[in-house]
Amino acid sequence: MWHLLSRITLHGKDEALRLKTDKMETIPIAIPSESTRVAIQQITPRLRELASRRIEANALIAGWLQHSLALKPEAWRSTDFTMFDADAFIAAVINDLPKNESSPQPRLLSSSVSTPSLLNQHVRRELKFSR
Question: pTM of the predicted model, to two decimals?
């Protein structure tokens, strides 16, 4: 594909390809076989369902972080929590916790949970993550 595009499209600064409409219309696009088309049609509803569940899960987790830990939602708006494993999620939460003492303490950060390792254990217990 790169070879074809490099031959028929305009080249811009630093060899960037300018994908103009008149040049892109001439690019051959493979037509899928009937078996490929059927396979795609069968899996598409499931992929849509999984994508909507993922979006819903991210929204629920962001809401939980905002209300339980008093974290700002802006910091988590574009985060895909479903891609984190348990350790990465906890590290990201700990990293985003308020650093100064003047900020209000969230519910999870009671006096018994003052160090990152204790917070890690506490969050694991609350989220029911098992190692």
Answer: 0.52
